[in-house]
Structures are given as C-alpha cells and as structure tokens.
Amino acid sequence: MLGQNGKLGYAGVERAIVIEKKVHTRCFEVMESDDDKFTGDNKCYMDSILAMYRENLIDRTKHHIGYCFNLDFDYGALANLQHFSINNLGDPFIESNYGVHSRQFEVGVLDWFANLWEIERSDYWGYITNGGTEGNLHGILLGREVLPDGVLYTSQDSHYSIFKAARMYRIECVKVDTLISGEIDCSDFKTKLLSNKDKPAIINVNIGTTMKGAVDDLDLVIKTLEECGFTSDKFYIHCDGALFGLMMPFIKHAPKVTFKKPIGSVSVSGHKFLGCPMPCGVQITRTNHINVLSKNIEYIASRDATITGSRNGHTPIFLWYTLNMKGYKGFQEEVQNCLRNAQYLRDRLRDAGISAMLNELSNTVVIERPADEKFVRKWQLACQENFAHVVVMPHVTIEKLDEFMNEFVEKRPSWYDQDGPPCLASNVGSENCACAMHK
C-alpha cells in the first residue's frame, strides 16, 4: 500500500492485487469501409497498426524477464506452412478422415519425450496440448477417472491450474504446506493423508513451482504414500513439469522424473524452455490409464481422449523442428547457461543488499518485490505478496540482467520510507533476507 508520501510501507498491511482494466482504451478497432471494396486507405491503416504493434513487441520482448518463456527462437524455415489449416483432431495415434494434419510430427515429438521419461512406446499415450494448464487439466482428469472417489493433494505453491482442475471436476482438494524453498512439506502431507486414509489419493507433484522454482521430492512423496499404507492402485501421481520438467533431465545431479517410478502422467510446456511463438505443451501418460477416458467418435473416424478435441497442428511441427535443431547436447548447454546466469543475478542482488533466493535446481531468482508498479510492468515481473521473481531463460543474457540490475539499484532508494525495504524472511528465509533486521 502506498503511504502519504507515495512510498511503500509494509508493517502489517496486506497488499492489494494490482489489476489494470484499460484494454478498450488501447484496442485496435476494426474499420469498416464505406465502399464495398477493400481500399488503399484500409491497407494503409492496417499497415500502420501492424508496424506500430511490431515495434511494441520488440520493446516488450527486450524487457521480458519475469515469465518463463524462451523468446530466443527462429522458425523462419516454417513460414511457408502458414498457408495451411493444420488440425490434429482426435487421437494422435489413429488416422482420421481429416487429411490436413501433422500427426506424423506429433508422434515423433511424443516418442522423444517418452524416451526422455523412460517409458516404452507400447506403454504410453500422449498428445501435444495448448500449454501447461491443459496438461494439468488432463492429468488431474485422468487421476479422477482412474480413482473416481480420490482426494486431490497439492502444495499451496502449486500453479493455479491445479486448483482450477479441482473446481472443474468437483474433486475434494487438500492444500499441503510448503517449506521456505516452496517444496512440498511431506510431514504435513503425511498428516493430511492419514486423515483421509479411507479414500484414494490423487497427487500433483511440482517439478518447479511457479514462483520459487522449487522441485517437490518425488521419491519422498512416494515413500510417504507407502508409509501411510497407500498401495500403487490407491494413488495416482501427476507431475507438473511446465518449465523445469524439461530442464531437469539435463542436470547430472538432479533427481529423475521417470515412468519407472509409480507416476501416472507428466506434462510440460513447449513454449517455455523449448521456445515457440504460440503456447503449447506435451502430456504423457500410461496406455492403461488413457483407456478409461477414450471415446470412439464416428464424426472424425477416430478416438478422442483430449481436452480440446481440435488441436493446433502447427505446434507439433515447431516442436519437432527445435528438437532436431538442438538435440540433447544443445539443451544441456542452454540449461547450464541459464543456471549460471541465474547464479550471477543472485550474486549481484546480494552484493547490492537486495533480498534474493535461488533454489539449487532452479533458474528462478526470487527477489524483493519492487515498490514501483511502472518498473514491475516495464520488466514484466511476476509478483506475489512482497516478493517477485526473475526467470533466467535462454534469451535473458548477462547484458540484459545488468541493465535490469542497474535500473533497480538506481531507482530503489526512492521507493521506501524510513522503515526501508520489507522483511522477506518468511518468504525466502532469514539467510536470504536483506532487510534491516537480517542484514
């Protein structure tokens, strides 16, 4: 909340969520011509709007560090495919009456991910989704179909799409406490499991939480289930790996997400670490699970078990293209570069006396929330309560981080009253907090 002097005070005050509603003041109107024919004026109007919009995209891309999208890509080689309406409706593994599709690319991408997560081609089913949320909606739906009376357990730091799925499917949802790191607290998980021991468990495991990049301990989650008497037929685990699910396999000392463990499904986003000009994702599950959801559809002469039915047929080609261009070695180099740059940012923040936390297996640097909303919007920082984060993706260079830090350090002194910056000990731990009390 802003005080009378325009500076931010934190003592016992709950911050309001800042949401702007100005879309109509900035929208591009559709102009109707007085003539029946398309005129030169129409074209000039559209050309000027598109040129202005492109300049805006260039600027916004330049200052994009708060969300986990990889903006470093070039798909110019695929431009000639935009003339086609490519629709991957139905089951990716079953031919349909609709012939303008890219299932041959989609299945190639799915096979690559099945190999990454160690499941045989005959044992998995999957499809390319519209993004991480759809992957989570599908994974939780599968859990509900396999265990109709199951209780959903997920940490309080989980992505909002998990709680959306619980509302949509009317599943009882139990929020589990988290550690300072953002990782699920398995002692609290155990307590809550035991209080519902008569019902099966559907568990969402985070492979990188939204705000802190924390990785839930999958092995400890499984051990906790077993200690509470849940056999493998009484639980279903969905792994939400939106960003880090595709980075973790390329870190040598990181724990493995694999179908050799008793998990039911894994989803990742394709537009995040891989980089894609439109939202997309990958969802993989076991063949025996998908059978409870599949329905034969005469209209398309196929089977369907997806959320959306019709699916973007262009995205599998984009994903197939970048997988071929980079390969395992290229991804490993990008992952290591992101982690190094994230450590660089954390160190610069600490040297400047700014609260900062970086989990060991993460490229998400948690920082003190800047007290200037213009600064937040310029750098497109994702914020929650008194903290924000910077996600160091492949396009976020050292030079960009230096530009961000220089502006942050320059403007920060004018943001606070005599109390100084907020205490973030409850969010990032006292050892990472740089407030007056914990310096």
Automatic annotation (TrEMBL):
Residue numbers bearing the N6-(pyridoxal phosphate)lysine modification: K272
Keyword Lyase among UniProt keywords: yes
Transmembrane annotation, as ranges: none
Swiss-Prot/TrEMBL keywords: Decarboxylase, Lyase, Pyridoxal phosphate
GO biological process: carboxylic acid metabolic process
Domain of life: Eukaryota
Keyword tRNA-binding in record: no
GO molecular function, one term: carboxy-lyase activity
InterPro entries: Group_II_Decarboxylase (IPR051151), PyrdxlP-dep_de-COase (IPR002129), PyrdxlP-dep_Trfase (IPR015424), PyrdxlP-dep_Trfase_major (IPR015421), PyrdxlP-dep_Trfase_small (IPR015422), Pyridoxal-P_BS (IPR021115)
Entries under Pfam families matching the protein: Pyridoxal_deC (PF00282)
Requisite cofactors: pyridoxal 5'-phosphate
Family: Belongs to the group II decarboxylase family.
Protein name: Putative group II plp decarboxylase
